[in-house]
Amino acid sequence: MKKALRLSVALRDQGVCSKCKTNTLDMGKRLLDVAENYRWLLEETWAGMKSLGFDRHLSLAEIDHILPVDEGGRDELDNLQTLCRPCHKAKTKEQSHRRGRLNKLIGKKQRKTIAHLTRLGK
Description:
Layout: H1 3-13, H2 24-37, H3 39-44, H4 46-51, E1 61-65, E2 80-84, H5 85-106, H6 108-120
Antiparallel strand pairs: 1-2
Helix pairs in contact: 5-6
């Protein structure tokens, strides 16, 4: 996905999660305030902060395909949304389970062929 498209989604959604309505920019700023107060502790537990979704960009947002690419979704503004990291993680987990079940039913190759045809509009 191109940076310009990511920026367009970010500007449109203003960092607000489409699912739970959390303002991810405010959340990142609050974490930074905590980080400043407890820098000595956080330097020792940076891996823990990363697992919570904290990064150097101070945003806990992910740009997500509403209809996943492997199911026919495209890199277009109307198919993209902002999700907070916990919502994105939950959606990704659910999609992974769904893909696994579908692969068992029809096979991975057939699932990918269907997605390809969907993208072509057939």
